[in-house]
């Protein structure tokens, strides 16, 4: 098209060989459109340089939008605090479009708390949901209800991979587990590795790092098939029980050099034990930037952290949801994987 020519939706429809309604559904990612028609419309839009009249669409729309974020509860200094900071940034962004963003929190160790949070989110009559899932079955039940009500939703931090969500913002979970195993073993002659896991809800419904653990175990099976992998469960709320469990682990294994991994943000619980017992012979790999993890890296009780900017993930999800709801802006990717940053004692102070 010549510069200055205004392309209309009629021209896009005519050149694509579809109706105006089909073009509109493609632009706003609504309704059923065949992959062939969608691809052709997007190809024509790019070729013609069509741009929808955003401001006219906004003025014509009478719909009030609201975004609800569902995340675990947290205390100061914990992993989800950084996510909440990203939500605050996202709230400011959405406010510029007149879209309120509220947060509903739940106890990540209690499935009933998650159910209540989902019910509270629905009571807000949202048009968009951003969710950090912990309980697989309950999350599936919830998102099926969202689909029934026509409410768009995105995942942050982790996702249900077999679900038809709008978008995901977070680490590639399987690959992060694979990376963790590679960093832990580092080509060494290893006899055994320990996975420290959180004892979560009593019914075993919450397992947010299962995909990460699968990647780790697949690496071990592929490169170290003779190496034993032992799962050790700890209660993060009971310091004495943690020490008793890790004492037993060390007493049952006379090898002073132990290879330890933990797939959530609480590797500092292991570091606290190693510090208290003055054990400096272990190789330890964990995840996520919280101050207690960073302190453990500086002191040498954790060798490597695999880090992510969870605040950026939350902000990206809210801004994408806002633009999708209001402007019909289609995301170029469904899975928006964020980088996996490798931190050690020499670079951890320069990450944030």
From TrEMBL:
Domain HTH lacI-type: 7-61
Coiled coil: none
GO molecular function, one term: DNA-binding transcription factor activity
UniProt-listed SUPFAM superfamilies: lambda repressor-like DNA-binding domains (SSF47413), Periplasmic binding protein-like I (SSF53822)
Record's keyword terms, sorted: DNA-binding, Transcription, Transcription regulation
Presence of keyword Cell inner membrane: no
PANTHER family: LACI-FAMILY TRANSCRIPTION REGULATOR (PTHR30146:SF144), LACI-RELATED TRANSCRIPTIONAL REPRESSOR (PTHR30146)
Protein name as it appears in the record: LacI family DNA-binding transcriptional regulator
